Protein backbone atom coordinates (compact mmCIF):
# COMPACT_ATOMS: atom_id res chain seq x y z
CA UNK A 1 0.00 0.00 0.00
CA UNK A 2 1.29 3.45 -0.88
CA UNK A 3 0.30 6.22 1.43
CA UNK A 4 1.33 9.84 0.99
CA UNK A 5 0.90 12.94 3.09
CA UNK A 6 2.39 16.41 3.34
CA UNK A 7 4.08 17.62 6.51
CA UNK A 8 5.34 21.17 7.03
CA UNK A 9 9.12 21.59 7.34
CA UNK A 10 9.06 21.78 11.14
CA UNK A 11 7.36 18.40 11.48
CA UNK A 12 8.51 14.81 11.28
CA UNK A 13 6.57 12.24 9.25
CA UNK A 14 5.77 8.84 10.71
CA UNK A 15 3.91 5.89 9.20
CA UNK A 16 2.48 3.88 12.05
CA UNK A 17 1.06 0.41 11.30
CA UNK A 18 -2.09 -0.27 13.35
CA UNK A 19 -3.08 -3.63 11.85
CA UNK A 20 -2.54 -5.61 8.67
CA UNK A 21 -4.93 -3.42 6.70
CA UNK A 22 -4.55 0.03 8.25
CA UNK A 23 -1.70 2.54 8.13
CA UNK A 24 -1.96 5.83 9.97
CA UNK A 25 0.07 8.71 8.58
CA UNK A 26 0.76 11.12 11.38
CA UNK A 27 2.64 14.40 11.41
CA UNK A 28 4.28 15.38 14.69
CA UNK A 29 6.01 18.61 15.63
CA UNK A 30 9.61 18.01 16.56
CA UNK A 31 8.75 19.47 19.95
CA UNK A 32 6.12 16.67 20.27
CA UNK A 33 3.03 18.80 20.71
CA UNK A 34 0.31 16.46 19.39
CA UNK A 35 -2.38 19.08 20.00
CA UNK A 36 -0.56 21.44 17.62
CA UNK A 37 -0.09 18.81 14.92
CA UNK A 38 -0.94 20.40 11.58
CA UNK A 39 -2.18 17.36 9.69
CA UNK A 40 -3.42 13.89 10.51
CA UNK A 41 -4.11 11.54 7.63
CA UNK A 42 -5.55 8.06 7.68
CA UNK A 43 -5.52 5.73 4.74
CA UNK A 44 -7.42 2.48 5.06
CA UNK A 45 -7.39 -0.41 2.66
CA UNK A 46 -10.82 -1.96 2.87
CA UNK A 47 -11.53 -5.64 2.71
CA UNK A 48 -14.80 -6.68 1.13
CA UNK A 49 -17.20 -7.64 3.89
CA UNK A 50 -20.36 -9.58 3.29
CA UNK A 51 -23.20 -7.77 5.06
CA UNK A 52 -26.85 -8.63 5.24
CA UNK A 53 -28.97 -5.55 4.64
CA UNK A 54 -32.72 -5.35 4.27
CA UNK A 55 -35.12 -2.44 3.88
CA UNK A 56 -37.84 -1.80 6.46
CA UNK A 57 -41.06 -0.42 4.96
CA UNK A 58 -44.57 0.09 6.24
CA UNK A 59 -47.43 1.44 4.18
CA UNK A 60 -49.01 2.53 7.50
CA UNK A 61 -46.29 5.16 7.94
CA UNK A 62 -45.77 8.15 5.65
CA UNK A 63 -43.88 7.28 2.47
CA UNK A 64 -40.37 8.74 2.15
CA UNK A 65 -40.37 12.19 0.58
CA UNK A 66 -36.93 11.66 -1.01
CA UNK A 67 -34.50 8.99 -2.17
CA UNK A 68 -34.17 7.10 1.11
CA UNK A 69 -35.67 4.15 2.98
CA UNK A 70 -37.89 4.37 6.05
CA UNK A 71 -35.42 2.06 7.75
CA UNK A 72 -32.61 -0.36 7.08
CA UNK A 73 -31.76 -3.50 9.01
CA UNK A 74 -28.04 -4.28 8.93
CA UNK A 75 -25.83 -7.05 10.26
CA UNK A 76 -28.75 -9.01 11.59
CA UNK A 77 -30.00 -6.94 14.49
CA UNK A 78 -29.15 -3.26 13.98
CA UNK A 79 -31.96 -1.15 12.53
CA UNK A 80 -31.36 2.43 11.42
CA UNK A 81 -34.53 4.45 10.87
CA UNK A 82 -34.61 7.61 8.81
CA UNK A 83 -35.64 10.78 10.57
CA UNK A 84 -39.38 11.10 10.96
CA UNK A 85 -41.32 14.34 10.81
CA UNK A 86 -44.99 14.89 11.62
CA UNK A 87 -46.39 13.64 8.32
CA UNK A 88 -49.69 11.83 8.39
CA UNK A 89 -50.25 8.85 6.13
CA UNK A 90 -51.81 11.25 3.62
CA UNK A 91 -48.49 13.13 3.32
CA UNK A 92 -49.78 16.24 5.09
CA UNK A 93 -48.18 17.79 8.18
CA UNK A 94 -49.97 17.10 11.48
CA UNK A 95 -49.90 19.47 14.44
CA UNK A 96 -49.28 23.16 14.90
CA UNK A 97 -46.98 23.03 17.94
CA UNK A 98 -43.75 21.12 18.50
CA UNK A 99 -45.50 18.96 21.13
CA UNK A 100 -48.35 18.07 18.73
CA UNK A 101 -45.85 17.29 15.98
CA UNK A 102 -43.80 15.14 18.36
CA UNK A 103 -46.88 13.00 19.05
CA UNK A 104 -47.21 12.30 15.30
CA UNK A 105 -43.46 11.75 14.87
CA UNK A 106 -43.45 9.15 17.66
CA UNK A 107 -46.56 7.52 16.17
CA UNK A 108 -44.67 7.17 12.87
CA UNK A 109 -41.66 5.75 14.71
CA UNK A 110 -43.90 3.29 16.56
CA UNK A 111 -45.38 2.08 13.25
CA UNK A 112 -41.91 1.53 11.80
CA UNK A 113 -40.69 -0.24 14.95
CA UNK A 114 -43.71 -2.56 14.72
CA UNK A 115 -42.97 -3.24 11.04
CA UNK A 116 -39.46 -4.30 12.10
CA UNK A 117 -40.90 -6.45 14.93
CA UNK A 118 -39.46 -4.11 17.56
CA UNK A 119 -40.78 -1.90 20.37
CA UNK A 120 -39.58 1.38 21.89
CA UNK A 121 -37.61 -0.74 24.38
CA UNK A 122 -35.37 -1.84 21.48
CA UNK A 123 -34.32 1.73 20.68
CA UNK A 124 -30.73 2.36 21.74
CA UNK A 125 -30.09 5.85 20.28
CA UNK A 126 -32.16 8.79 19.09
CA UNK A 127 -31.31 12.12 17.56
CA UNK A 128 -33.83 14.94 17.88
CA UNK A 129 -33.65 17.88 15.49
CA UNK A 130 -35.54 20.96 16.67
CA UNK A 131 -36.34 24.08 14.70
CA UNK A 132 -36.10 25.98 18.01
CA UNK A 133 -34.46 24.90 21.24
CA UNK A 134 -37.26 26.83 22.97
CA UNK A 135 -39.46 23.79 22.20
CA UNK A 136 -37.14 21.42 24.06
CA UNK A 137 -39.27 21.09 27.24
CA UNK A 138 -42.50 20.44 25.31
CA UNK A 139 -40.85 17.85 23.05
CA UNK A 140 -39.07 16.28 26.01
CA UNK A 141 -42.36 15.76 27.88
CA UNK A 142 -43.96 13.86 24.98
CA UNK A 143 -40.72 11.96 24.29
CA UNK A 144 -40.44 10.92 27.97
CA UNK A 145 -43.97 9.50 27.96
CA UNK A 146 -43.26 7.48 24.81
CA UNK A 147 -40.05 5.87 26.06
CA UNK A 148 -41.00 5.60 29.74
CA UNK A 149 -38.32 3.81 31.74
CA UNK A 150 -36.55 2.51 28.62
CA UNK A 151 -34.51 5.62 27.92
CA UNK A 152 -32.18 5.38 24.89
CA UNK A 153 -29.05 7.48 24.46
CA UNK A 154 -29.99 10.77 22.84
CA UNK A 155 -28.65 13.86 21.15
CA UNK A 156 -30.74 16.98 20.59
CA UNK A 157 -29.72 19.75 18.22
CA UNK A 158 -31.28 22.92 16.93
CA UNK A 159 -31.33 23.27 13.15
CA UNK A 160 -32.22 26.17 10.88
CA UNK A 161 -34.77 24.29 8.78
CA UNK A 162 -36.42 20.87 8.55
CA UNK A 163 -38.24 19.20 5.63
CA UNK A 164 -41.75 20.53 5.02
CA UNK A 165 -41.09 23.26 7.62
CA UNK A 166 -41.47 20.74 10.44
CA UNK A 167 -40.69 21.86 13.98
CA UNK A 168 -39.24 18.51 15.07
CA UNK A 169 -37.60 15.48 13.46
CA UNK A 170 -36.47 12.34 15.27
CA UNK A 171 -34.30 9.51 13.99
CA UNK A 172 -33.74 6.28 15.88
CA UNK A 173 -31.40 3.30 15.96
CA UNK A 174 -32.75 0.06 17.40
CA UNK A 175 -31.28 -3.33 18.15
CA UNK A 176 -33.77 -6.13 17.53
CA UNK A 177 -33.47 -9.89 17.39
CA UNK A 178 -33.58 -11.47 13.95
Which characteristics define this entry?
178 residues; alpha+beta; six-stranded mixed β-sheet; three-stranded antiparallel β-sheet; 9 strands; 33% strand; disordered N terminus
Order of helices and strands: EEEEEEHEHEE
Walk across the major sheet and give the strand order: 4-5-6-9-7-8
- Number of distinct beta strands: 9
Query: What ranges have pLDDT less than 50 throughout 5 or more consecutive residues?
Result: 1-46
Strand content: 25-35%
Query: Total number of helical segments?
Result: 2
Helix content: 10-25%
Q: What separation lies between the terminal Cα atoms?
A: 38 Å
Structural class: alpha+beta
Gyration radius (Cα, Å) is 22 Å
- Biggest β-sheet, characterized? 6 strands, mixed
Mean pLDDT comes to 79
